[in-house]
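Raw record, unedited: FAD-dependent oxidoreductase
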Amino acid sequence: MNKTAEVVIIGGGVNGCAAAYYLAKKGVKDVVVLEATNSIGHGGSSRNGGGVRQSGRDVRELPYAMYGIKNMWPTLSEELGVDTEYTQKGNLRMGKTEEHLKKLRTLADSAKSVGLDVRMIDEKEVKEICPYLSDEVIGASWCPTDGHANPLTTTLGYYKRALEMGVRFYTDAPVKALQKVKGKVRKVILNDGTVFEGETVILVAGYESREIARTIGIDIPMTRLIDECLVTEMQPHMIDVMFGCATADFYGHQTHHGSFVFGSDSGWEVVDEMVDPSTNTADPSKLITNSMTLSASSRAIQSYIPALRDAKIVRSWCGWLDEAFDGVPFLSPVEEAPGLILACGFTGHGFGTAPAVGLMLAQMVVGEKTVVDISALNYNRFKPVR
């Protein structure tokens, strides 16, 4: 086993696989990807609600979210040789009260200030776009260029193409620590003591990135938060758009084969120990589902989409997301740790921006200017100033 590479990527999720692919595409084929579990895309990368959206984002994320949707997602299936099921039919973020609409209007105005095509629409136009919604919906924000895709096929598409182009992937390779050599991050040490070495290390391992970075004295200000997903049985065709609500109770879409996929939270996740019923312990690696969130999100979905009231849930699951303290990711080299690039803290909405993020990580490695300015996402934004 060759344990040296030009670039070592820690994390085999969609952003890690995308970075590996774009590096290989730029000619950097001496790349190793280390995945802690026994399968690529094992975590949230392949198990999320599939949103490819710009609306509702922090303005610091919008430039690269917009870049990816304009320049990358439309041709991604052809490029990767898989059906990503990318559908660009818009995104409704619904409201039932004037307070809801006020919140949506604030988000829309903020997005419009950086050039996004998003506007408020009234109850009549909402029903024209989607007649299956509740009469309680009095308005929504509408972004016609938003959409959704299949996270599993997209993640595995990046993996497949990177593998074909010479990238080496190792599963069952949990990272224990980083190590500097002559002041530069170079060594990646696995739990079993195996050591990989690279000229550049990209740390894109979700919340686990925090513990790994701490081994060289870098503390990434983020925490972990539980998020829930559910899938319904196949339904008649009803909805092409991506949708959510002002209160962020849920978001989702109808897939190409008819089932609905929803992501959700109830607000109570932080107090739930998430006990694994097979062991009666709160093992965070064996989360099954969160009963509070599942019931709350089901009620919320029914209240907005009454046509789904009798739809059966065929499966549900939950997992940890890496929540940055200010809600946007860390995408930058680390000044105090030369050779290390961070890509974590995506706060549950990193799938839709993965093409742009993967491209920009590759650009950082080869010394190119990123396609858009992401200086606001630099790790040092939390550096003490007094």
